[in-house]
Every structure is written in structure tokens, then in C-alpha cells.
Design brief:
The structure is a homodimer. With about 400 residues, the first copy, chain A, is of the alpha/beta class. Chain A has 2 domains: about 5-115, RuBisCO large subunit, N-terminal domain (Alpha-Beta Plaits, 2-Layer Sandwich), CATH 3.30.70.150; about 120-405, Alpha-Beta Barrel (TIM Barrel). Chain A contains 17 helices and 13 strands. An 8-stranded parallel sheet of chain A has the order 12-11-9-8-7-6-5-13, with helices on both faces. The N and C termini of chain A lie far apart (about 50 Å). The mean pLDDT of chain A is about 95. At the A-B interface, α3, α10 and β10 of A face α3, α10 and β10 of B.
Amino acid sequence: MSSCTATYRLYDDKADFHKKAESIAVGMTVGSWTELPQAKRESMQKHLGQVLKVYVHEPEGVQPGERYADVTIAYPDVNFSKDIPALLVTVFGKISMDGRIKLNHLGFSDEYLSAFPGPKFGIKGIRDRLGVHNRPLLMSIFKSVIGLDLDELRDQFTRQALGGVDLIKDDEILFDNPLTPIEKRVEVCMRAAEAAEKETGKKLLYAANLTGPTSALRQQALRAIDAGANALLFNVLSYGYDVLHELSSDSAINVPIAAHPALAGAFYPSPHYGISASVLLGQLMRLAGADLVLFPSPYGSVTMPKEENMAIRDELLSSTLPLRTSMPVPSAGIHPGLVPMIIRDFGTDVVINAGGGIHGHPMGTEAGGKAFVQAIEAAQKLISLADYAAAGHPELQKALDTWGGER
Amino acid sequence: MSSCTATYRLYDDKADFHKKAESIAVGMTVGSWTELPQAKRESMQKHLGQVLKVYVHEPEGVQPGERYADVTIAYPDVNFSKDIPALLVTVFGKISMDGRIKLNHLGFSDEYLSAFPGPKFGIKGIRDRLGVHNRPLLMSIFKSVIGLDLDELRDQFTRQALGGVDLIKDDEILFDNPLTPIEKRVEVCMRAAEAAEKETGKKLLYAANLTGPTSALRQQALRAIDAGANALLFNVLSYGYDVLHELSSDSAINVPIAAHPALAGAFYPSPHYGISASVLLGQLMRLAGADLVLFPSPYGSVTMPKEENMAIRDELLSSTLPLRTSMPVPSAGIHPGLVPMIIRDFGTDVVINAGGGIHGHPMGTEAGGKAFVQAIEAAQKLISLADYAAAGHPELQKALDTWGGER
């Protein structure tokens, strides 16, 4: 029987967790079991949820509030349609509201996965588009763009591009607006990208933010692509994973999609409630087809515990799924001094992503990008940042002086 | 300057909450302020967020972990498009991930509201359709329907309908499936409803569950309506509020929509993180156009604190919004003994909603419905349930014996 699985952590000082697990497995599938006549049970067996695992954590002297169980339930695929809303409602619809319970992991059956093409480009596809295969990528974020006009936007774009970044993304709070409507800013920015490429020799992806009514997103994406967009940004959690899935699996939308984690903090930080970061920003983003996934790093200003970051990375890169990988983009408060540590933690398949760490460089935005390029070069050559800065890289030196050196 | 507002509760043992509020107001709008040249400030002023209120809760002897502030920020409407994803990303996108912060309230400007027609029917429209104006409505929920075929579904529908309920809703975990595809079950159930109406003299709304791919929901709704559906059920949180908004404001979808709270528990129960129940299930559901809103009651099996329930009710019914009201449907574990208390708490404009409390009646599903009808009659006549049961209402008597009497 093909099933998807869900693993929960339940906190309760006294509950019989085995009984609780059984009641979830029955209650969220066939509804009742012991009352069913034998003949009915036979026909219902294929719909019945199964308790796969109950691990109870109650060490001697466990404190009130700290007794929990990790419970894994299998939900037969025959019970729900092959889409993310159906899976989420099945495994965490009603029970999300029933006491201290957090959804910590999902398991997708091959049958369920068959409905999901996953990322259209993935890490390899993005690297192919950029022609960069052996180093981390560098992304820069537009900053303070609300209220800017097209000339100001172009100017900021050019300064970022000349710093040598590989990707530039819209600010996620830039919505479609009369000053810089998406097609216009794509035209302006892609022209600026071409001009910059002549100086830097580097290709550049610009991820334009898809916003507005759900039913108009596809057309908006196509108009942006017609205008030259070679990537898109999307606030997935404010629209729903199925919307990303439909966009990413649409053959006409033939550019990489970067998923922004806006609103994710409404789900993952509590130990007792919600959905873990690795499900939200790892498993579901990849399943829904995000080519790049942004999330708070363990290092910077808005942080997430390192083990959660590593769990996200593992889900985005795992070879156990028959889907292309998604590029991890640990974000927020990143400065050049952190680059070697990011590479140690994530490996080469990572995007170094910075906003303030580029625009806030004392020598300007272009120098801010260069400092990161130099930091990546140093890390790739296994040279300390301090040594590399001293060897004729003043932008990196200034960045280290400003935000601190290698950690 | 027209603005929407957001009120947060921030927990921190030491933070300068006024400074923190200022940094949210600036950071989530113009990005930076003190560094801007004077001329730029003038043009940016209309985009700048404003701190409206900072209330710091730190009574003498406040314990670690219990110092908090309630902070209200105004976000200029000019910064975001008039849709729910844009508002949520603006007010709770990045900052949802930045420490202990919960979104507790929203304030909608008239300008923002102008894009939202709200519920198409609302409480009055639903009552008009049913011809019932002076009492709480009664809803029954299909139970254990996974794996049933059309005959079994019709049989369960009929037993519910003959009990005298006003509304019957699909189980939210019933997705489109080969055994009971939505159009077929609508046809079968609406025929059963007509037959039952001849016996009960009561009109009946049947809310069929919209499921499957986002882009196909509208067509699915229209097919269901063509097949006779006179209401729809929708798992809003698994799809996104904008999808509900688009469905509810579509003139062709001319039946009431009931919003199910599946997944809501991933957001609201933590005091430190997430989005309050009154925002999720009150403000945003009504804004997005839900005619009825289900949520866990304070009384039954899956519970929510009573003050949160009352806050949801207040948002659904508030006369300060230029939108039709939404009908509150406190749910889960409701039995007839609770009816007088529900009416005391909610007033007459409420749906008494039961699943197990109807199907689990020892005399059967039909008797289960009748017991609720009798409980509502008693409460309306200000007769105690015990007295009314004794006066020739054996179904009510049995229900009180089974689940307990009036609370």
C-alpha cells in the first residue's frame, strides 16, 4: 500500500502517546475503526492510517513540559489527491489545532512524487545558465527600493552588477507599482545587466518579484519573461505551495524561480507548534519546484539554529528524491567575513546572499560586491581572508575592517 | 496618508522596544532613514512606516521570558498592492523570522478595503437562503467518508438531513476521488436534500469541498454549482487567502462559501510566534469573503481559549467594517448539552456544528440531529434542556444522558 508519512513531535506530560498516535492514524483517515463491522473493515483497510513509529522521550527526572514523543504515521495515498494542499490538510489539518504538536518531517511516496516535476533548473541548471560550476554563487538584494523610479532602480542595479555578483533579486516587499512596474523594471535592469556584462564578463540572473492576484501570476510571469526576465522571485508562503507548483511546472515559465521565506517565521520557530523549517523551506519548497530557496542563516542578523539550517540544506540537496536539487540561499546579515564558514557548512553548492553586506560597504555598492567576490576567491584557494585582503584586495580589507574578519 | 496597521506582541527581556518598533517601521518600508539626505527624505516621507503605539508590559518583579511589548505600526498603502499576500508580506514577511514576535491584529484602511467585496452572502444572505431568521443554525458534518461510494454517501446525507439540520458539510479530508467525484456527490446529495425537505419542511445547504489544483478551483466550483451545489467548503489556509478572495468575489460563484480552519493550528497557538486566531480566522477570513468560518470552540474536544473565540466572533461580526458579516461556526466536540452556552457566548448568529455529537447519538444519526434541534428550541424558549427533554423529547434526553447535560 503506497503511503506518504508524517512525523510529529507531541508534547504532553501524561498522555499515552501510543494511544494518541493510534487515534491520529484512525481519526485522520477512516474516522473510526473499532466500531466497524468486520466486512466493512476489509474494504476500509486500504484507507486506514498506520502508526509506523512512536519514540517516547521521558528520561528519568524529566521536567514538566519536557516529555514528548516523536510519532510517525503513514497516510495511504489513495485517500488524497496528489497536491500539496491535500497532503497538508490530510496530515496536519485538524490535528494542527489539537494540543502541542509540531509537524517535523514528511515522507513522500513514489506515487505521490509522480505528480511533481520539481525544480525545472535546479542547481545544475542555474550553474549552466551562469556558466559557473566550481564556486559558490553570489547574490545581491535590492535595498530600500520602495519609492524609487526606474532611473534610480537602474542605477542601483548597475552598481550591484559591476561588483561582479551572479544574481540580483528584487526586494520581496517591492510589489507591482506605477513607478517601477515589473515589465519596465525587467527591461531596464536586463539592459543594465548586458552593459555590466561587457565590463565584468559575467552573466547575471535578475529575479523579478511576482506579485498581485493569484490568477494573474502566470500571465505576469510570461510578460516579465517576454520583457527579458531570466529569473523570478516568489513569496511562496503568502500564496500557497500549490501556486508555486503550478508556476514551476508550467512549460512556458522557462526561467529559474527563487522562493522567498517571507511569513515562514509564523510557522517554524516554536518548539511546540507549527511546521519545522526543514519541511517548510526544505521539503515543500523543493517539491513545489523552487530552483533557489532563501532562508535565514545561522550567522547573521535574522538567525535560525544551525541544525535547522543543515536540515534545510539536506532536504534541498538530498539524492533520495527523484527531483532536481534546489540551491540553498542562507540569508540576512551576511558579510564577507562569513564566507569561509558558509562554504564549510554548505559546501560549494550555495548562494552567498547579501543586502546590507553589499550596499553598506564604506566604499560603495560596487566595492561591496567585489569584497564578496574576493572572499569567495580566497576561500576557494584556501587562503585566509586576511592574507588575501592584504595581497592587493582593498575592498575585502575594508569589509573585514567594517564587519569583522573570518570566523 | 492612508495606511494599514499591524499590532505585534514582542517578547524580550532587555530590548528597547521603542527602538525596535522604530526599526520595524523603517526597515519594513523605506529600509533606511537617518542616512537619507534631506531632499530624499521629503520624497520618501509618504512611504515611511510610523510607530503608532508602544505599550511595554514590565510590572515590578517581571519574570524572565515574560517582559513584552504590544507595538502598532502603520504601513502606508502606497507601498503595497491591495491584496492579502502583499499585506502579509509587508507587515509580517521578514520580521516573522526575527525573534519572538506574534502578529495579533490588523487594521485595514478604507483604501485597502476598497479592493475587497467581502462575503457575498454573509449572515443575512445565508439566513435568507434558508428562510431561518430567528435562531441559531445547525450544521452537520459528514464523518468517516473516505472509501464510501455514492450510495453510502447518500445514505449518510439522508440520515443527517432527516434530523432537521440546516447545513451539511463535506469532511474537509474528502478530496476529489473516483468513488465520489464532486459533481456526482453534489447531484446525489442535492436530490437527497429535496427528498428530505418534503419530510422536514426545511431547506438545506450542502457545502461541497473544493480541492485539487489552484488554477482549476474556479472551474470545479462552477461545475459543482451546475450540478446543483448551493454552498462550498474550502480549506483556505492550505491554498492562501487570495484564492478564497478570488473565488468569493467571482460573480459566477453565486453560493455561500464556508472556510475550514485546517492547518490554522500551525499559526496561532504559541504565545510567542505566529499569527493570532482572530487575525487568521476572524479578520482575514472575512476580508477574503468567507460567508461562514469554522474554528475550534472553547467547549469541545479540540479547544481554543474562550477569549480567542470571542475575538474571532467580534471580527466576524464587527460593524466597523464595510463588509457583510461572516457566520461564526465554533466546532469540534459539540453536543446538545453545550447549546445554551454557545448561544450565551455567541448570540443567535451562530452555527451549532456537530459531527460526532450527531453521528454518535445512541439512537442514530437522524436522532442526533433531532436532539440538537430540540436543544435549540429549548434554549430559544428559555426552558432548561432537562425540562425540555422530559417534556416528550426522547432524542434530547438520550443525548444529555450520553454526553452530559446543560453546562
